[in-house]
Task: structure prediction
Amino acid sequence: MTTNTVSQGQSSNQTTQTPSALDNFRPLIVDVAVPLGAYYLFTDAFGMSTFAALAWSSVVPAARTVWSLVKERRANALAGLILAVNVVSLLLSFLSGDPRLMLAKDGAVSSTVGIGILVSVALGRPMMTAGMRPFLVKGNPAKEAAWQRLASGRAAASADFLRKERVFSVVWGVALLAECVARVVGAYTIPVDTMVWLGGVMMIGVMALTFVISGGLAAGPMEEMVRAEAEAHEAAARAEVTVAA
Result:
């Protein structure tokens, strides 16, 4: 009986495949890193204009967005967001002349990302999850399985876990919108020479503060829930094997 139980457990583990670390990072690599890397490659290595580089670097996210809509009947959030950012940047590349307007337009990208994140939360598919998940599960199969149980509603702490998942994305969406507002206000109230360097400082400050807040309110508690769920599941599995033996 013990042998049958163990073999059944092994068979179950073999049939239940958990994503590898590469699988976890693939959305970030394909939907974010590839378009951004392509943009800098086209501008720096091939000397393309900003407009041409943005256009060519939009090919992958555009293809991914269309593929998801046609084949999977759903929108690819990250690819769609990068595509939206590129389109906004393409439109803004036609703006020139007023230096304050040029400074203010930098906030348009932040607002596009922020709005996209908040919309994804409203649709029930928090966009920032794809970026957070690899750092919480760390390629650990037990933690990955625990994440799946929590996210699917099959764990006791699922409701709180899903709430924290939404909070994480909301914090980032609101922070990016606030950064956009601050940039626009600063562009028209602060001397241009000052705002040129202050814009970068503002972005770094907002990012650092958002990491701390989102970590304390959501990512930290979610990591603890994943760890606790993985340990509880492992303990239950050991107890089941002991009883069967």
User: Anything to note?
Assistant: The two ends are 7 Å apart (CA to CA). Residues 192-244 form the longest helix (53 residues). Residues 30 and 237 are 36 Å apart (CA to CA).
